[in-house]
Design brief:
Order of helices and strands of chain C: EHEHEEHEEEHE
Subunit structure (chain B): Heterododecamer (2C3:3R2) of six catalytic PyrB chains organized as two trimers (C3), and six regulatory PyrI chains organized as three dimers (R2).
CATH superfamily of the largest domain in chain A: Metal-dependent hydrolases
Largest sheet of chain A: 9 strands, mixed
Distance between the termini of chain A: 16 Å
CATH topology of the largest domain in chain A: TIM Barrel
Catalytic activity (chain B): carbamoyl phosphate + L-aspartate = N-carbamoyl-L-aspartate + phosphate + H(+)
Oligomer: heterotrimer
Helix content of chain C: 25-40%
Protein name (chain B): Aspartate carbamoyltransferase
Chains: A alpha/beta (425), B alpha/beta (308), C alpha/beta (194)
Structural class of chain C: alpha/beta
CATH architecture of one domain in chain C: 3-Layer(aba) Sandwich
Keywords (chain B): Pyrimidine biosynthesis, Transferase
Order of helices and strands of chain A: EEEEEEHEHEHEHEEHEHEHEHHEHHEEEE
CATH topology of one domain in chain C: Rossmann fold
EC number (chain B): 2.1.3.2
Radius of gyration of chain C: 17 Å
Shape of chain A: globular
């Protein structure tokens, strides 16, 4: 196994030092290291972070391999600085059995670019009617701990209560896509001034807030863990703040796009900006940013949602919702938070690894820890060209935007997946 | 000169006035023995209709033919569109056929905006989803100006299902640009959120039709679909027409000079009674006539020169 | 309103301006055309004057007014907008159209005299003949112009010419009238002074 010596690199923003990777772990950290057999990576001006962990990725396999595969999505993740991703269950067939989650898990192992941790469906076929075999998925080789019907809300309050209770047996967690379905029938974008102007059916903020409010009460009542996916409104932040203050075991994520883009992007009717939950207002963005800084929101998760060209090059109402995110997430975080490396490590690596139960991830580089890490050039600026992305799909909302930061190298258990800004395999 | 007409917001006061003035000249052609002008000879106008709307299609067809354009009607029914061809592929087909203008009616809001990205020709929005219908607003403005002599300072009530109405959105934008004051009237469930901020500052909202009527110059009744009550927008057709329908006694509360408009097709007995629809205040038939002149003006201004 | 010729040379190195007709000259020329019309039409019976916008319209009104002063006959006057009949619509941004006003008696069976300021390529007159065709069926059509500057591109000639001005293609003739421009004048621009 090749050793790698990264010289003069700042670990999570600390003073530059050398970092030696050997046999899958961080072997040594300190100034003036020498290892004649190691490949040297000049880390001057670069920052090393624990490998990023995404709680919310759609890899589309099985079922829509034209949009993404486990392999292409894993490559996109590695290029984005990730060493682990949680693959959502809304594939075809749905990941609602031990068989499907094991298939996804195995495909991830074969690709070998990031650790692919499957998420299991809460209900059979995401239909919201009866529980999937959550225990079987937990006991499978994939060792599923996060369960989510993402794309659909577990709207039935009784079913939600049962799910929250049931997964306590194996320390599982329910990740809720908070969307009251009756309040969002036919919804196309955030309900507000812009939806009125564009004549698109509105997705009101209250449809998210009402479900989160209900779910934190349910989680509190049964004493279970709840995770809230892609929080998008200022009102949701307030509900979460109060719940956390009461000690409810709730965590929450926000996507990069909800931290940066507003509903006004819909004005061209280009469905590349159609996403669920929808892009919101500048006030919501401000609330989400401050919640991310003060910890009411725990995690940045990408909701990476690749879609084939024909599902986006069409009328807005007929387009599928979702955006690419893996290859741009760190740049957006850097843009939004600035070079707050400890905060970035907390929100994009340590906390998501802890929520997902991924041991070996989310640990700052130090002697003896698994070498799951990424190296960033914070001074670089790059212009996003959809055709250059590793994802099979092109639906990035950041096309031709210039963003800060570039991933120089990513290591998974000591093996480089990205070197010199390029995927190794 | 504008290249596409997608929204009432595409028109500033000068351009809108130029269209109305041009339409007035086009109207004189209708009185001639030879109702034809050579201005668009050799130009091809495609009517691309994804929804049945015979009246709008015929109006555009007559307008294009009076200007000597070649007209191709492309109805979604029984065509490749019905077989699942995407809007983009259809656009590329029309592009290959050399369409100079595409007049599009589509059930999805914003479809004409998408189309405009994919064809070189001009795109005219002939109604998209619950978004806009700018030529309807132009013919409404033309009708008001013809009847009342001006637009600036007019007080216009637009009554009914504003939420789902493309006619209402285009009218609010255009009438505000031309200096008229618009009040939207309907049950709160059918008035979209933040309408003044979304479309035009100064747009008023009222839930009380009777309070509005004595002070308006124009009352425009919108079509209200009975099916809306299934979605609880209002309890019943009877309650709707009692609160927001225009009947004889309500019409008599209007100032003497005020006119009654309706974009058609009407639900007689729902939003408007036959007594009102057939009264001398009603401009419903004129609106249809004026539609052809206004659409001639729009097609001429988009296609009559080299506007690339 | 004269059509520019299809080809036009670049601006002359030393542009010059020459007044061809001053205000009093314009009035004299209009009077003479009015007399010629009376003479050639045996008293302007069954005659309609149609001015071609912009400056043909006031010229037609002036001619009618002078004719009624000289002979006490009322000649109906109208305006014929030719914009939609032009053969160069696609070469320019869309042109605003003007009003067409046909006198109440119509033009069927009448002698129509088209009135314009400058006769140049002849394309404006060609368009006017087409427009006339859609408005009615006159017994005959004649043409009156204030200035004929030559360089015809079509087989068209004027029946009444106020002044023939020999010009080079590079030059331009500009007519101003009190009604449209504040003062009566005909100027010749361009060409090189040698």
């Amino acid at each position: 196994m090749t050793a790698y010596l990264i010289t003069s690199v700042s670990i999570v923003g600390a003073a530059p030092t050398d970092l030696l990777i050997r046999d899958g772990v961080v072997a040594e950290v300190g100034p003036g290291l020498s290892a004649p057999d190691a490949v040297v990576v000049d880390g001057t001006g670069l920052v090393a972070l624990p490998g990023l962990v995404d709680l919310h990725t759609h890899l589309r396999e099985p079922g829509r391999e034209d949009a993404e595969t486990v392999e292409s999505g894993s490559r996109a993740a590695a290029l984005g600085g990730y060493t682990a991703v949680c693959a959502m269950a809304n594939t075809s067939p749905v990941a609602d059995t031990a068989g499907v989650v094991e298939q996804v898990w195995r495909l991830g192992r074969e690709a070998g670019l990031v650790d692919v941790q499957p998420v299991g469906a809460v209900t059979v076929g995401l239909a919201g009617e009866r529980l999937a075999e959550l225990g079987a998925m937990a006991d499978s080789a994939a060792r599923v701990r996060i369960f989510s019907d993402d794309g659909h809300c577990v709207a039935d309050p009784l079913l939600m209560r049962r799910a929250l209770e049931y997964v306590k047996a194996f320390d599982g967690i329910i990740a809720q896509h908070a969307e009251e379905p009756r309040l969002t029938e036919g919804a196309q974008m955030h309900e507000g001034e812009v939806s009125t102007r564009l004549g698109l059916i509105g997705w009101p903020a209250v449809a998210e807030e009402a479900i989160i409010a209900r779910d934190v009460l349910l989680a509190e009542h049964v004493g279970s863990r709840l995770h809230v996916c892609h929080v998008s409104t200022a009102g949701s932040v307030e509900v979460l703040r109060q719940a956390k203050a009461r000690g409810v075991r709730v965590t929450a994520e926000v996507t990069p796009h909800h931290l940066l883009l507003t509903d006004e992007r819909a004005e061209t009717y280009d469905p590349v900006f159609k996403v669920n939950p929808p892009l919101r207002t500048a006030d919501d963005i401000a609330a989400l940013r401050s919640a991310l800084a003060d910890g009411v929101i725990d995690v940045i998760a990408t909701d990476h949602a690749p879609h084939a060209v024909e599902d986006k090059e069409c009328e807005w109402a007929y387009a599928r919702p979702g955006m690419l995110g893996l290859e741009t997430a760190l740049s957006i975080a850097l843009d939004v938070l600035g070079p707050e490396w400890d905060l970035i490590a907390e929100r994009m690596s340590r906390t998501p690894a802890r929520i997902a139960g991924l041991t070996g991830h989310g640990v700052d580089p130090a002697p003896g820890v698994p070498a799951n890490l990424t190296v960033i050039d914070p001074a670089a600026r790059r212009t996003i060209e959809p055709a250059e992305l590793a994802s099979r799909s092109r639906n990035t909302p950041y096309a031709r935007m210039t963003l800060p930061g570039r991933i120089v190298a990513t290591f998974l258990r000591g093996e480089p997946t990205v070197l010199d800004g390029k995927a190794v395999k | 000169m504008i290249r596409h007409l997608l929204s009432g917001a595409d028109l500033d006061a000068d351009t809108a006035t130029e269209i109305l003035d041009t339409a007035a000249e086009m109207a004189t052609v209708a009185g001639r023995e030879i109702k034809k002008l050579p201005a668009l000879r050799g130009r091809t106008v495609v009517n691309l209709f994804y929804e049945d709307s015979t009246r709008t299609r015929i109006s555009f067809e007559a307008a294009a033919k009076r200007l000597s354009a070649d007209v191709i009607n492309f109805s979604a029914k029984g065509s490749s569109v019905a077989k699942g061809e995407s809007l983009k592929d259809t656009a590329l087909t029309l592009q290959a056929m050399g369409a100079d203008a595409v007049v599009v009616r589509h059930p999805a809001s914003g479809a004409p905006h998408r189309l405009a990205n994919w064809v070189d020709g001009s795109v005219v929005n002939a109604g998209d989803g619950t978004h806009e219908h700018p030529t309807q607003a132009l013919l409404d403005a033309y009708t008001m100006r013809a009847r009342l002599g001006r637009l600036a300072g007019l007080s216009v009530a637009v009554v009914g299902d504003v939420l789902h109405s493309r006619v209402a959105r285009s009218n609010v934008l255009l009438l505000s640009t031309l200096g008229a004051k618009v009040t939207l009237v309907g049950p709160p469930t059918l008035i979209p959120v933040d309408i003044a901020g979304a479309l035009a500052p100064g747009t008023d909202v009222s839930y009380d039709l009777d309070a509005v009527l004595p002070d308006v110059d124009v009352v425009m009744m919108l079509r209200v679909q009975r099916e809306r009550m299934k979605d609880s927008y209002f309890p019943s057709a009877r309650e709707y027409s009692r609160r927001y329908g225009l009947d004889g006694p309500r019409m008599r509360r209007l100032p003497e000079h005020a006119i009654v408009m309706h974009p058609g097709p009407m639900n007689r007995g729902m939003e408007i009674t036959p007594e009102v629809a057939d009264s001398p205040r009603s401009t419903i038939v004129e609106q249809v006539t004026n539609g052809v002149s206004v659409r001639m003006a729009v097609l001429y201004l988009l296609l009559g020169g080299n506007n690339r | 309103m004269a059509y520019p010729p299809a080809a036009r040379s670049s601006p002359p190195r030393q542009p010059s301006v020459k007044v061809i007709l001053a205000s009093a000259d314009v009035q004299r020329v209009v009077d003479r055309i009015a007399h010629q019309i009376l003479e050639k039409t045996q008293g302007a019976a069954d005659t309609v004057l149609l001015g071609i916008p912009t400056r043909g319209a006031p010229l037609a009104r002036r001619l009618a007014s002078r004719i009624s002063t000289f002979e006490d006959v009322v000649v109906p006057v109208g305006v014929l907008d030719i914009t939609l009949y032009r053969d160069d619509l696609r070469r320019h941004a869309t042109r605003a159209i003007g009003p067409t006003q046909v006198p109440s008696g119509g033009i069927d069976g009448k002698r129509v005299i088209l009135v314009d300021d400058v006769l140049f390529s002849g394309r404006t007159v060609r368009a006017a003949l087409d427009a006339l065709n859609d408005v009615g069926r006159p017994a005959s059509v004649q043409l009156a112009v204030l200035v004929d500057r030559g360089h015809r591109e079509l087989p068209i000639r004027a029946d009444y010419v106020g002044k023939n001005i020999p010009t080079a293609l590079a030059e331009s003739v500009k007519v101003t009238l009190a009604e449209t421009d504040g003062a009566d004048e005909v100027k010749l621009y361009g060409g090189t002074t040698s």
